[in-house]
Every structure is written in structure tokens, then in C-alpha cells.
């Protein structure tokens, strides 16, 4: 199958051509060395420099424990966004098998979509080797698609490492909690879970149980000294309720963001994660440790796309090795 | 290999759209209802319309021997029935099919 080059696909995304999305993802997910330069060319086309600012799409992380109702919630939430005329891309992340390296991606089957609707794009992605985390391709995909779509959702399972990864990659993180489970309360209190931007309690149709879950979460947030985090109760099954409030809460968080700062931080942390995945602890030592690597990144042009930042780190490691033969 | 599981009772339009969005290398259709003679060519037609006409389709299910040739003429790459119980061989076939369609040598 011959595919157009990364720069061509990137330019189509920049012009908000949604039909370029599958080809963009095919390229970004292909990690063979000959495709890396092409992927970098794609991302360069949708970098702030070419766009004249940060990509306009809202990158929303949706995460929560298995069974919390994320897929059902996304069916109703994407419908609400589409009704409002916004285009939506969903990146549904499923874990990879540690044993085979492959993955069974079943999430798509649970998100309802109209196959004739070109304004909604759903892509399943495997988490890859990073246990519970995000594959580098998923971050790149979110960056690329946010140039073309109004909303890009990264959906992940779990509370813990994956949530931290999503927090880095997304503008706004919504944690989904089901009533009566108590999970979120425990995680919040113990500090395992970072404070999400929006908390969503599903299954509001359960009535009192859902109301109590909402009150408990408010209480936990108060005891942690964060009153501002909205807690939204939704019922995803028809008749769906609470989605206007959820859309408003997500929009409000985004409106209050310093977007260039958030995205620059995401690209820098993402580049460091990519560099680590490629060069390991040995590479990090050559950079003088994580702190030194982060301050080196902080000196770079904020508009540089992630692959360019990875190259900056690689060149830095090489330069330091040349002057300091003791480095690994 | 990543497998995108789509669930059951899908329309040809849903299958075609998912395959294109997901950028798959091969589509496996399982059909037990006896409606393969109509539905499988419908899927292939829907794929062409959705811009996925180059994605190979393999089918498995309760498919009489007499229907295999017509399906292949309609564009199906391979048909498997309950007589084909050697899973490893089927997997090798699928890997070889994907390799051939993408112009890469198949690994053993």
C-alpha cells in the first residue's frame, strides 16, 4: 500500500481535512526507522509555527477504573458535542499484552457511532510496552488531530500511571467514577490520583447512591483544599442527562488555561518520555539526569514539535559524551 | 498483532467505516446466519465506497463449499469453515496474506 508523505498528510490536517485522520494515524503508529522522519514531517506541519499558534482542538483525557462507564459516557458525550456542531476524534487506548506484544482492542465496540458521520473519528490504540501508560504514538496522534478536530478525546483505563500520562498529554482531564465504588475517594485521599480537572459521576439514574457519591467527592476535594474542581453527575443511558453541564465544565476549564504554556509543557515532557523509551537510563545519565534534561528543554523554542525536541536531547547527549569521556 | 474487536451484528457500512478509520491490514468476518452470499459482497462494496477497497477480507463461518467460489469472485481472499480447525495454519495464512498485500516478505 503506497501512502502519501507525512508533510502532505500534515498539511491536510492543518487545513482541517478530517479524512486525512486514518492516514495520519497509520503513519504515526508505524515506528520503523524509515517512517520516523515522515512522522516528524507530519508533526512539523501541525506545529504552532505553521499553525500560527497552538492547535485549536481541545484535547480531553477521559480516564477511570474499568466498568466505571467510560464508553457509555463517551457515546453520549460525543453525541452532545456533535449536536453542538463540533467535530470529535476519540483515541481509545487499551492495554497491550506483555507476553505477545499484541493487543485485543475491544473498546470501539462499546462506543456508539453513526458510520455515515464524517465528523466523528474513532481509533483504537494499544498502550504498547508502557504498563498502564500512553504509547508515544498516542501523544503524537492527539497533537496531530487537534489541528483538525474541535475535540480530541484520549480515553484510557485505570487510575495511576496512565492517568499521570494522560494529564501530561491532555488540556483537560476528566476522571470518571461510578457511584458506590469508593475507588476515587480512596485514590484522592491517598494521593495516588492527581486532582482531576473535572470529576464525572456516572449512573446518575441510580438516584440516591449517585447523589451520595457526588457529595462524598465534594467532601474529599474540600478536605484536600480544592473547592474549584467541578463534580458533574451524568446519566449516559437514554434519556441522557447532565451532558450540557459536563460540556460546560470541560469548556470552562479549557477557557481558564494558559494554552501555550500547557502545550509546551506537554511537548517537553513527551519528548523526554520518548527519549527515555529510546535511550533508557544510559541516555538520561548522558544528559546529566532528569533535572538537567528538563532545564535544557526549558531553554528551547517553545514552538518546537516533539520529534524536534527529541533530536535536541539526542544532540545534547552526544555533545556531552564528546567532551566527557566518562559518560555512558 | 493488534486485533480490533468490533462486536456482533454490524452493518456493512459500520464495518467499512471502522476498518478505514482503524487503518487495518486485514478484515476477518465471522458469519453463521446463512446470509453470507449477500452480506459479504455488500461489505466489500461498502469498503470500496469508504476508500478501503485495497483491504483484504477473509471470511469464516457456516459457509457451504458451493458458495466459496462465488465469494472469492466477489473479492474475498480466503474462506474458512468448521473443517478448518488448525488455528496456527489460519494465522500463518493471514500473516502471509498481509505480507503479500504490503509487499514485504512474510516471517516464518
Please write out the topology:
The complex is a heterodimer of chains A (328) and B (108).
Chain A: H1 6-14, H2 21-29, H3 33-45, H4 48-51, E1 58-64, H5 70-83, E2 88-94, E3 103-105, E4 120-126, H6 136-145, E5 151-157, H7 161-169, E6 172-177, H8 183-190, E7 198-201, H9 208-223, E8 231-233, H10 243-255, H11 259-286, H12 290-298, H13 306-323
Parallel strand pairs in A: 1-5, 1-6, 2-4, 2-5, 6-7, 7-8
Chain B: E1 2-4, H1 12-22, E2 27-31, H2 36-50, E3 57-61, H3 65-73, E4 78-80, H4 87-101
Parallel strand pairs in B: 2-3, 3-4
Tell me the strand order in the biggest sheet of chain A. 4-2-5-1-6-7-8
Q: State the share of residues found in helices of chain A, binned by percent.
A: 40-55%
Which secondary-structure class do the elements of chain B indicate? alpha/beta
Give me the count of strands of chain A: 8
Q: Which H/E pattern describes the elements of chain B?
A: EHEHEHEH
**Largest β-sheet summary of chain A:** 7 strands, parallel
Largest sheet of chain B: 3 strands, parallel
Question: How many helices of chain B in DSSP terms?
Answer: 4
The percent range for strand residues of chain A is: 5-15%
Q: How many distinct beta strands of chain B?
A: 4
Derived from helix and strand composition plus strand pairing, the structural class of chain A reads alpha/beta
Principal-axes shape call of chain B: globular
Portion of residues in beta strands of chain B equals 5-15%
Give helix and strand order of chain A, one letter per element, not per position. HHHHEHEEEHEHEHEHEHHHH
Rg of chain B, nearest Å: 13 Å
Uncertain ranges of chain B = none
